[in-house]
Automatic annotation (TrEMBL):
Gene Ontology molecular function, alphabetical: calcium:sodium antiporter activity
UniProt key word S-adenosyl-L-methionine: no
PANTHER family: NA_CA-EXCHANGE PROTEIN, ISOFORM G, SODIUM/CALCIUM EXCHANGER
Domain Calx-beta, first and last residues per copy: 151-251, 282-357
GO-annotated biological processes: calcium ion import across plasma membrane; cell communication
Cellular component terms per the entry's GO annotation: axon; postsynapse; sarcolemma
Record InterPro entries: CaCA, CalX-like_sf, Calx_beta, Na_Ca_Ex_C-exten
UniProt keyword annotation of Ion transport present: yes
Protein name: Calx-beta domain protein
Keywords: Calcium, Ion transport, Repeat, Signal, Transport
Length: 357
């Protein structure tokens, strides 16, 4: 498979990790869960790029599902668990997937900092939606007393604080999609509450104007609203590019009282009536649809007689014909020996833009 950009066969190195991002994740004041989530976001993006390089024609939906599965099931280092079993403490060394580690964190009520694996599973689900995978497993695998405790804690939080967040927080779209919606969810909080939040886009490896249309504005959640949508427009062009991404952020959350006053929820006495919940940043990955094509011989086997003289072999280009591509070729020995049974050949085939054979 060959991919090109412009006139040369060069694959650009894409690195969306900016210095600002590095400074943020390394800062002392950043919550460990937030730091882990942002690190996971970058890892998830790079994994999707790797998968697509191996499978250039995979659909956005299948690409996202495969990346999610690989993130959750990746094995991690051997770890030590102290398991509560029949009032005995048993040190047990095992090799586990990230999902297994995350479930054990909640199963046995470990206190103190949670492991990186725990955050990996949670971050994957928050990126692509679908809720809390650990909570879903607990509902099935644990006794009613544990479930009741978890549900009571969640109910108390929902009743006291309205949470605003992206759901999901990762979108994978083709370059020719045109417009699509990013969903912002709302959960819990006092009845009759109107919440307002600002949003804006930020460049990653994709650039505002040339790759997408930048947006900024304000969403208003009225008392009965459970979600709002932000419309995003992707710019389609005829230039082959590496898969790129950009960000959509939420900020400046505020509430509006019944008499029309706009207040900062963190300045209201007691627990905040509203807050931005992680993830407050969504990632949009743009998959390029201007493929240079896949190249192959018309047949993989040719049978000829020795006296035929010359043989012409056709090379075909399919699944895209964008750009000028140079294909190197050479012969190699099998049971026939070069320059004894056949004339050795080495050179380059040049496919111009839209040329298919």
């Amino acid at each position: 498979m060959i991919a090109t950009e412009g006139e040369e066969m060069k694959m650009l190195e894409s690195n969306g990790i900016t210095q600002a991002y590095k400074d943020f994740t390394q800062a002392d004041y950043v919550d460990p869960a937030v730091r882990a989530f942002e690190e996971h976001r970058q890892e998830f993006i790079e994994l999707m790029r790797e998968i697509r390089k191996k499978n250039p024609h995979i659909s956005p939906t299948d690409l996202q599902k495969q990346a999610e599965y690989e993130m959750i099931t990746r094995p991690v280092f051997r770890v030590c668990f102290i398991e509560k079993m029949n009032f005995f403490l048993l040190n047990k060394y095992i090799t586990a997937t990230c999902e297994q580690i995350a479930i054990r964190h909640q199963t046995f009520g470990f206190r103190g900092p949670k492991s990186r694996a725990f955050y990996r599973v949670q971050a994957t689900r928050r990126l692509i939606g679908g809720g809390d995978i650990v909570k879903k497993r607990i509902d099935k695998e644990h006794n009613k007393a544990v479930d009741a405790l978890v549900q009571a804690q969640e109910k108390q939080t929902r009743e006291n604080t309205c949470k605003i967040y992206f759901d999901p927080a990762h979108y994978t779209v083709l370059e020719n999609i045109g417009n699509f919606d990013v969903v912002v969810g709302r959960d819990g909080g006092p009845e009759g509450l109107t919440v307002m939040v600002d949003y804006y886009t930020e460049d990653g490896t994709a650039n505002a104007g040339s790759d997408y249309v930048p947006v900024k504005g304000t969403l208003t959640f009225y008392p009965d609203d459970k979600y709002q949508k932000i419309s995003i427009e992707i710019v389609d062009d005829d230039v082959f590019e590496e898969d790129e991404h950009f960000y959509l952020h939420l900020r400046n959350l505020r509430v509006r009282t019944k008499d029309g006053l706009i207040l900062d929820p963190s300045r209201i006495g007691g627990l905040p009536v509203a807050q931005l919940e992680m993830p407050a940043t969504a990632t949009i990955m743009i998959l390029d649809d201007d493929h240079a094509g896949v190249f192959s011989f018309e047949h993989d086997h040719f049978q000829i007689i020795e006296s035929c003289g010359h043989l012409s072999i056709r090379v075909q280009r399919h699944s895209g014909a964008r750009g000028k591509v140079v294909i190197p070729y050479r012969t190699s020995d099998g049971t026939a020996i070069g320059d004894k049974h056949f004339e050795t050949k080495e050179g380059e085939l040049v496919f111009d833009d839209n040329q298919t054979e």
